[in-house]
Design a protein that fits this description.
mainly beta; Immunoglobulin-like; 2 domains; 4-stranded antiparallel β-sheet; 4-stranded mixed β-sheet; transferase; kinase
């Protein structure tokens, strides 16, 4: 077995072991080949080559970080102000792979830090992980990009006008170090009022037979 590989094979037992610690974040898969030589006495009869793939499984040994170093997003809430509207998104990168769905909620938590009651009532944070591939030491390994979306938790009246800063604490609870497993996301939000300006006055003729709540006029903003 090549000295460049982190594996050794004992000739007497054919046991394969590692020469050094393996890091999945550097290389996740090794494609080895096991060669078996069949002999009859001193005569070599056949050599059989069998694929021997090795996969390095993940440990939660990498701290989360900001994707491209961006920890702040700005949002302007103006015309799109209905409940469920995504107003801003920030991304967190983690070299570790996406955990199973049950593990995800336990491992990764996001908390909108206490501010004024209006902000906590108006906004919520939605989290979704996405598996991606990144290059490391000449090979591609799996990693995770966590999307954190700031979402309107209720529809806002067109007269609402506020400027505020929101902070979201992200915690990889199973990360043991070294370093910190927490990040603080910042959202700068401006809620602008919507003004309705009609070009001129309008008059309408209503029939006596008009039903209750009959539509008379529609304005598009």
């Amino acid at each position: 077995m090549s000295e460049n590989l982190p594996f050794r094979c004992a000739s007497d037992s054919l046991e394969v072991s590692t020469r050094r610690a393996l890091d999945r974040e550097r290389q996740e898969k090794y494609e080895l080949v096991a060669a078996c030589t069949v002999r009859m006495g001193a005569r070599e009869v056949e050599e059989v080559m069998v694929p021997f793939p090795v996969t390095v499984y993940d440990e939660d040994d990498s701290a989360p970080s900001f994707l491209d170093g961006v920890d702040t997003a700005s949002a302007v809430v103006e015309f799109k102000r209905k409940k469920g509207t995504v107003v801003a998104t920030l991304h967190v990168f983690d070299p570790d792979v996406v955990p199973a769905s049950g593990e995800l909620l336990r491992r990764y938590t996001s908390t909108l830090l206490p501010g004024d009651a209006w902000a906590l009532q108006t906004f919520r944070v939605e989290h979704s992980p996405n598996e991606t591939l990144v290059q490391a030491d000449g090979s591609f390994i799996r990693a995770t990009v966590h999307d954190y979306r700031l979402v309107l938790n209720r529809s806002l009246p067109i007269s609402e006008s506020r400027t505020l800063q929101l902070a979201v604490l992200v915690n990889d609870s199973s990360f043991q170090g070294p370093g910190e497993g927490t990040l603080l996301l910042h959202f700068n939000v401006s809620v602008l009022p919507v003004s309705l300006r009609l070009p001129s006055a309008y008059s309408f003729t209503v029939s006596r037979r008009a039903h209750l709540f009959a539509q008379m006029f529609v304005a598009y903003v």
